Amino acid sequence: MDGMRALATAMGCAIAACAPHVPDGAPALSDTIVVGESTVRLEYQARDAGAARRVAEALVQALPCAERWGRLRVPVTVVLHPSHGALEEAVHRDGFAWLRAWARFDTIDLQSPRTWNLIFPPTLAEIEELLAHELTHCVMYQRAGSASSWPYKGIPLWFREGMASVTAGQGYKRGGPEPLWAFYARQTPGGGGGGLSGGSGGSARPGRVPRGGDPISDPEPLYQEEADLVYGAAHHAFQFLLDRYGAERVQRLLAEMGEGHGFETAFRAAIGIPAEAFEAEFRRFLAWRGWVGRP
Ligand SMILES: [Zn+2]
Description:
The chain is an alpha/beta fold.
């Protein structure tokens, strides 16, 4: 350890810097950031020392936001990758130009903000927002399971990404629910939207699952090419869950998973209906444009 410095914040934050011995090309420096009672370790290469300072500053704001859903039980390691290619390699994804970070139980792989946009560098608020999103994933996974069980809880993409997006306040970039309504309208034979708006017989079947990918219940076929649609669906579905059933039941859902249940069982116990029924409710909300006329 070659130094220590502290950030004086209301949250109480300390940063310790050290230089672990690691192979060439891997992150060579690390800081430990303590916010309240939670710890985040930051790893980066020397060329990203400036970006790392901004990330450390952003973490102080982002972590309390994510911890709305519970404390980090296990320290998280944030690895700053010096390029987009290095990030994709680390997370084993190829062709995801829009990807900036990838969260797991106790790690966040993050493309260095230095390389997000060379012409318009991100603001601190943009870095905070992204970190709040990723840290929400970590909090969710740590509440749902252990370091070995969390990937097997069966948490659907809409819940994972929706909770992260809503918590990070990313609604402004998701657009309204209209594109989702239009998506389902296109799935209706003879559609154009008219068929979905009624719900009284004919070919209109609000709540049904279309073929070839569904942004809620079968998002994988759409994830790479129609990320905006998938993330928008996730955001609006989670917000719908919060509005309709309340945050306390969502907390209970996380607690049920933490007690050993998978998502389906936990959802039914906490929310009171099967997840599939909720997804159908949300599709009906879209089909009937339930948001129209709301304040
Ligand atoms: Zn995410």
